[in-house]
Please model this.
Amino acid sequence: IADQSKDSEDNCSSPLNDEIILKTEKLVQEGTWDIARHYPLRQGEVRYVKISIHVVRYSDGTGGIFPETRIQEEIDNLNNHVISTGLFFFQYGDIIYLDSDEFASCSSDESYVLREIDAVPRSVNIWFVPNFEPGCGRSSFPDSSTQGIIVQNSCASTDWNDSTFTHEVGHYFHLYHTHETYFGNECVSGNNCSVAGDLICDTPADPNISGLVDSSTCLYKGDELDICGSGNPYSPLADNIMSYSSKLCRDYFTEEQLSVFLWSAENERTDHFYCFGDVTGNGLINISDLLLVINYWGTSEFSADVNFDEIVDITDLLILIGNWGPCD
Model:
């Protein structure tokens, strides 16, 4: 599968279904999607988003992503691409390991079962697997029945691919492929950009540029003409993260994409924000959190370390008390 991934760009297998499409069409029809496309970015106003990392290995413990520092490299890369949103993604808790031959070589059907195993509530759950048969990655959308992201190890922070991880997180926060057609074909003129294609107006119409971008120059080399009949050629973004460009060329979200990303975080994924003091992770700061902090006083226990300074002390207790009650 690793060799196939290098030769083919179209190996994101994040599926759309009628429910997701209908939900998005409703957002478009009622004007909410226009609000999302123009949602104000929040650079300088940091909000922390929890990521729970799962590493799948074979039953004998081999095959896990190596070195594991590649995981943090991917999170850092994601943060660099979304810095203008004010969102900051971080690994929440220790890596969760699953040693299973069945899921180490994961099929499309098995991916739905895998994403139910040890999933951490109220966070972005991401499973790194040795072999994912559909391709490099898969993500849920906000209204998918099964939530979470799968990334194949060979597609994570390699010398030929450092964009699949961020691409899949883009789907998780309601971004579609730039060549999407489920909502209709976008015209080269862009006159239907808000109701067709990827529903984003600062991403030009894209005919699906898989295999049509020179990986050394990152230039689009296709010659397809406008599906709407104007006779004009396409001029897609060969560097956009949500495209099927060469993976090393994908290094950019547009402003509207970032606005939708942030809108989704603040309206569809609000429970993913880290609430300082909510050490039990239930969205409420109360006596349970207080007792946990006291129980681990003086240790470096992550689950009780409110401010992540590797020591549970009076600072954590004061933050907890200061935020007492429901999380915003």
Remarks:
- The first helix runs from residue 2 to 7.
- The two ends are 43 Å apart (CA to CA).
